[in-house]
Amino acid sequence: MPSRTTALVTSVLRFTVVLACITVCGCAANRVAQYTYERRLLADADEKFDQKRYAEALKIYQELVSSPSYSQTEAAKQALFKIGYINIYYDNPKADPKASLDAFNSYRVRYADDKLIGEVNTYSKILVVLKSFEEQYDETTARVKRLQYKSAAATGSLDTLLESIQRCSTERDSLDLEKSALLKKISELEQTIVKMEKTR
User: What's the mean pLDDT in 81-110?
Assistant: First the structure.
């Protein structure tokens, strides 16, 4: 007959082995549970982005953000940031700054206290400045076209025609200066974005 001490040690060892098995199984199950379907979708989209398949990546990111099943997950938050990012990414031929600004604005509303909010705010400010430059450029271009049309339609004395030509020339020079300034600013902003991407 085994002694009481041996029986006690055997019981403690069995208990320890069972506890270790439960802990190991629990940890393994926890790791499996953490890699959910939405995390796999996000990883798939990220892989497509790395392969320069931007339209496909964007479609998956949008699915994560818009699906009621995933919209409250961490993967959806990351996807929303990447929708903004992919739409201003310098190598994306179908980049859409308006869609990018919409995504970043949505991110700011949903995740105001997030650690990426500073970066999101920087991108948003750059996009607002670019939009303002574009509007100014379009307005000036339209003004020049109106003046050119008026000049072409004008009839009358040589003095009137010369005055119209002078106004058009002045407006054209002004537009050229504005265009140069806008192109310089856009180049600076693109360099800023590239530097930000390199530091990520």
Answer: 93
